[in-house]
Amino acid sequence: MRFMVIVKASKDSEAGVMPSTELLTAMGKFNEEMVKAGVMQAGEGLHPSSRGARVKYSGGQSSVSRGPFDLTNDLVAGFWLIETKSLDVAIDWMKRAPFDGGAEIEIRQVFSPEDFGEALTPELRENEARLRASAAKK
């Protein structure tokens, strides 16, 4: 099962405060452990929302608003994409993450093709597989 681990934004991350050398070292060690265990597929930190934008869709139209955005629970400061046997195993890994000071993460399972049932026709499955293979080559 694949999971996205969403690292919630904080006042510091939104202010552009960079992590300390100590935290970067601990995070690098944690990431290395996950890679060696075959768990981590990707992981990145994100710039503050002041450097981002949101696109809203309504009635066939789109509108854009640029950051910064109010600090709410929907702001993301970073993420991991991990693969484990279960949510419980993902939780066990993330409990080891070197966070402190009220940091919060969210763990969400990524859909697999099987989750879509018959709506994902063989043709759509084939197209999705082809797109993934093409993107992996780049």
Q: Could you explain the architecture of this structure?
A:
32% of the residues lie in helices and 28% in strands. The protein is built from 4 helices and 6 strands; from the N terminus they run βααββββαβα. A 4-stranded antiparallel β-sheet has the order 2-5-1-6. A two-stranded antiparallel sheet has the order 3-4. A hairpin with a 2-residue loop joins strand 3 and strand 4 (61-66). It is globular and about 50 Å long. The protein starts with a strand and ends with a helix. The mean pLDDT is 95.
Strand order of the largest sheet: 2-5-1-6
Q: Sketch the topology as an H/E string, one letter per element.
A: EHHEEEEHEH
Number of strands: 6
As a percent range, the share of strand residues is 25-35%
State the helicity in percent bands: 25-40%
Report the structural category.
alpha+beta
Query: Low-confidence stretches at least 5 residues in length (pLDDT < 50)?
Result: none
Biggest β-sheet: count, sense, barrel? Answer: 4 strands, antiparallel
Report the radius of gyration as a whole number of Å: 18 Å
Shape call: globular
Query: Termini separation (Å)?
Result: 24 Å
The average pLDDT score comes to 95
